[in-house]
């Protein structure tokens, strides 16, 4: 089971479950739709995974703990004062039912992490469909390194970003990529999904290699140039 629960204006809270095990919850900006979904579907929660310390990813953690006080909350060091009870900046998390790889993916924030679970990448604000997060740290080299780490994942990896930014990202990608065919095709699909009220996500590493300029950037200079241009787009 893989479910994106809409939150705030354009966030997604991701729920992942294998077989009939308890779910994993990735990022909690709020609990307005999350708690009713968990309760109505009678879902137990095995763990919460936080990707970074921005409020639109963690500000619902305290309220969530009122309903699930015993669920461990994993996150990077920068989330220590945002509700994380188990600090992980890299390495492996082994819960009762899940093997979770913690991938450093800084740049948007210095300590941002992503999680790889059963071939699913939960990447917060590091990687979006056809885009990547703003480099608030100013450390473009760190963000470029994160993109290279994502590029090395298997093509079939399912990518689960935290925001519905796809249409805007595709519009920018069309202005910088030499081969625009995949971008144009994906834009038609996403416009249809959004018109039907459906999310454009998840995506895959294979698709992102075709439509995401930040995964295609040949070097740090090109990556930085495109990211700065996207900031003004």
UniProtKB/TrEMBL annotation:
It catalyses: an S-(2-hydroxyacyl)glutathione + H2O = a 2-hydroxy carboxylate + glutathione + H(+). Zn(2+) 1 binds at residues 52, 54, 108, 125. Keywords: Hydrolase, Metal-binding, Zinc. It is an enzyme of class 3 (hydrolase). Its EC number is 3.1.2.6. SUPFAM superfamilies: Metallo-hydrolase/oxidoreductase. It holds the Pfam family HAGH_C. Zn(2+) 2 binds at residues 56-57, 125, 163. InterPro entries: Clx_II_MBL, Glyoxalase_II_hydrolase, HAGH_C, Hydroxyacylglutathione_Hdrlase, Metallo-B-lactamas, RibonucZ/Hydroxyglut_hydro. GO terms for biological process: methylglyoxal catabolic process to D-lactate via S-lactoyl-glutathione. Coiled coil: none annotated. Residues 10-163 form the Metallo-beta-lactamase domain. One of its GO terms (molecular function) is hydroxyacylglutathione hydrolase activity. Pathway: Secondary metabolite metabolism; methylglyoxal degradation; (R)-lactate from methylglyoxal: step 2/2. Its cofactor is Zn(2+). Binds 2 Zn(2+) ions per subunit. Belongs to the metallo-beta-lactamase superfamily. Glyoxalase II family. Monomer. Thiolesterase that catalyzes the hydrolysis of S-D-lactoyl-glutathione to form glutathione and D-lactic acid. This is Hydroxyacylglutathione hydrolase. It comes from Haemophilus parainfluenzae.
